[in-house]
Amino acid sequence: MYRMKTIQNICICGGGSLGLVCAGVFLSKGVKVSILTGHPENWSKSIEVYDPDGKLYSGELVDITSEPKEVIPSADMIFLTLPGYMIEKALLSIKPWLRKDTVIGAVVASTGFFFMAHDILGKSYPLFGFQRVPFIARYRTYGQIGDLLGYKAKLNVAIENCDRPEDLRVQLENLLGTPITVLDSFYEVSLSNSNPILHTGRLYQMWKDYKGEVWSAPVLFYSQWTDEASEYLIKMDGEFQSLLRKLGLKSDSIPPLLEYYESKDAASLTAKIRSIPAFRDIKAPMKEIEGEGWIPDFSSRYFTEDFPYGLRYIRDLARQEGIETPAIDEVYEWGMRKLR
User: Fold this and answer.
1) Residue 7: which residues within 8 A CB-CB, separation 6 or more?
2) Buried-most residue among 113, 156, 297, 319 (CB within 10 A)?
3) Given CA atoms 95, 98, 101, 106 in this order, what sign does their dihedral have?
4) pTM of the prediction?
């Protein structure tokens, strides 16, 4: 069993928006940060991250590389900010270079992190994974300037293989600057009703009847949310909550979406989602056809991650536990057909 020590050197695996924003925040706390990415040539060693109030998080990275052997042996913590389809490959690539006291975690665990880590790493290393992303993040300039668009009031994390999880919790809380609660089971972070249900239900509502239409501008994913999308979410979340009860998880560990968004029905849920400032300008996954307009992008991460590495685990566990999920099945099967 791993005994917690002070985290002084962090390697972030993943060069997207969350990787950039987390790097800026961590550097501002005085820790050393390296980046393991497939595109090191596009990164700057000096990075800047700005929050909505203009607060600057900045610093100098220790290293930027695509070679695990150059950064993993010196890392006290590995922080994965990767989409679900890249997690397995990343764990396999870093495993030969891990120290026995290295902590491995995921910025969000609802895309299969714990399931894959159990298979690849077993109980040899301390693991942690968050229920929801700590920040709403976008990059302004890839690998150099990022925007932290929104903070979370609190975060939930699952921790395994650590004899002093409270020490790890405190260090994560200090790094992220957000109150953190340790949950009882990895299921509580692996089975999220955030992206795996929120994204997939909305996508299904928008494009279930798509027959080649072209839009003059991208659809706003949240600001143009509809009551129909909220109705799908409520149905899917009801099935999801039945699974959680069957698994014996605490009722407050993953609150129903209506409760989380302080709503009472589809109409109030729609109003709430539309009103969130950090969501205002986020566009639906679409691509532009020159001279014609915008069409759905079925190859985006909303599809390649949230269906096979999010909703899939909910559906599979529900089947194992004998829980009927007609709404989830309908949405999942539609999304997987779009990926073929």
Assistant:
1) 31, 76, 77, 103, 171, 175
2) 113
3) negative
4) 0.79
